[in-house]
Write a structure and sequence with these properties.
Layout (H helix, E strand, L loop, with lengths): L5 H4 L2 H12 L8 H10 L4 E8 L4 E8 L3 H10 L5 H11 L6 E2 H4 L3 H7 L2 H7 L4 E10 L2 E9 L8 H25 L7 H9 L3 E6 L4 E4 L1 H8 L4 E3 L5 E3 L2 H19 L7 E6 L4 E8 L17 E8 L8 H8 L3 H11 L4 H8 L3 H15 L4 H10 L24
Antiparallel strand pairs: 1-2, 1-5, 3-4, 4-5, 6-7, 6-12, 8-9, 10-11, 11-12
């Protein structure tokens, strides 16, 4: 062991970080504890594991720390397909020498690039000046890229530091490979619940923490097969032909997977996918696993996201008058609920009803209470799946059967 490496190798931080890397394989929080610790130990301001689909030149997800949604979307739109730091790291990997590279050390004319390309604006969004990164895992066009950024009030990266980072790279690569393989094998729901998902009259996808689809029901397969703007590629990644939609889905999946890893609720995302002669509504929610008295330190890995697909061309449009009768809604509440169920976003509804977004949210809150729901995706699912409502005219909302308490998968 060289004298240069000895002080670092015996640092307690080294052993803690290596432990966190391998803990990520089975820990419910995945790589987040490692990313946080690595960033603190090595004076970073932000960092992430970015998941890329090189076949489309796009980033499909990110395990990010201190990177805002706005910055992720900007990166996906303007930089992902031409990131010079990613290209430098890919070159090193393809040459058989996987290693960390730094913007201030390995990119020529970096100052000119920052001033003449969107990279300068992206780094500004991160309040960053330098970045270092490496290819952690690659499976054909599926790539995991780790990057950490530093602000201008911190020292630029040095070659000696990159050598230290490289000590972790083999560990990161092994853990990422195992994590990705094991994620795809996770039984995301018991057989009985998977059977229920299979029988639903709407599309359901379950995306694991490596952003790959690990379950799709028959209805989802039909919708995707008949929709030009959505596909699941041979790497198991969901892709959309619309760049703006793809970026929104990427950020929403990233947030949902993080919320799932942390075991917390988050607002659902509802997006519209225009097709040739119809509209597909996409809902994205964290995968939350019910546990009976989980033990201390329970690391059961179930992080992921649930993606719902609703094809309005094969469903009757929901009539607000029916909703008034069935759920005892006011005319305004019924109109908001119907527009939401028929594929509208909150912004669309506010614009078309000449109300503020806050007013629409207030109506929606009342609809949640009266329908015994608490999430947009759940409400949309109930109304969308209830095509029989068009034939039901009960004399009182109490004639309707009481809804059972909702359960997480």
């Amino acid at each position: 062991m060289s004298n240069e490496a000895a002080p670092f190798n015996y640092s307690p931080d080294y052993h803690d970080l290596v432990g966190l890397i391998y803990d990520a394989i089975s820990h419910s929080k995945g790589f987040f504890p490692f990313i946080h610790r690595f960033t603190r130990v090595f004076n970073g301001d932000s960092a992430c594991f970015g998941i890329y689909d090189l076949s489309t030149g796009s980033v499909v997800g990110a395990w990010a720390v201190n990177i805002a949604d706005e910055a992720l979307k900007f990166y996906a739109e303007h930089i992902a397909d031409s990131d010079p730091l990613l290209k430098a790291a890919l070159e090193a990997d393809e040459e058989g020498n996987p290693s960390f590279v730094a913007s201030n050390l390995d990119i020529e004319n970096v100052d000119a690039i920052r001033s003449q390309t969107p990279i300068g604006e992206f780094m500004g969004l991160l309040h960053a000046h330098d970045a270092a990164g490496a290819i952690v895992y690659r499976d054909k066009s599926y790539v995991v890229f780790f990057a950490m950024q530093r602000s201008s009030n911190r020292p630029s990266f040095q070659k000696e530091e990159l050598a230290e980072f490289n000590v972790f790279l083999p560990h990161m690569s092994r853990a990422a490979r195992l994590y990705t393989k094991l994620s795809s094998l996770v039984d995301t729901a018991p057989p009985a619940e998977r059977a229920v998902l299979q029988d639903l009259n709407r599309g359901i996808l379950i995306v694991d923490a490596s952003f790959r689809v690990v379950f799709r029901n028959a209805h989802a397969g039909t919708i995707i097969a008949n929709t030009a703007n959505i596909e699941i590629n041979n790497q198991g990644l969901v892709s959309f032909s619309s760049g703006a939609l793809a970026r929104s889905v990427m950020v929403s999946l990233s947030n949902a997977i993080r919320a799932s890893a942390e075991g917390r609720e988050m607002p659902d995302t509802i997006l519209s996918v225009p097709d040739i002669d119809r509209t597909i509504t996409v809902t994205i929610s964290p995968l939350l696993t019910s546990r009976i008295e989980p033990s201390e330190g329970d690391h059961d890995h179930k992080a992921g996201a649930i993606v719902g697909l609703y094809d309005w061309s094969i469903r009757p449009r929901i009539d607000p008058d029916i909703l008034e009768t069935v759920f005892n809604l006011t005319p305004c509440e019924a109109k908001v609920a119907a527009m939401l169920a028929n594929g509208g976003t909150l912004s669309d509804i506010a614009s078309k009803t000449y109300r503020t977004k806050e007013t629409v949210k207030s109506h929606l809150k009342s609809v949640f209470r009266k329908t015994n729901t608490c999430r947009q995706a759940e409400l949309v699912a109930i109304l969308a799946a209830s095509s029989e409502l068009a034939q039901i005219t009960p004399s009182s909302p109490h004639d309707m059967p009481a809804r059972q308490p909702r359960k997480h998968i």
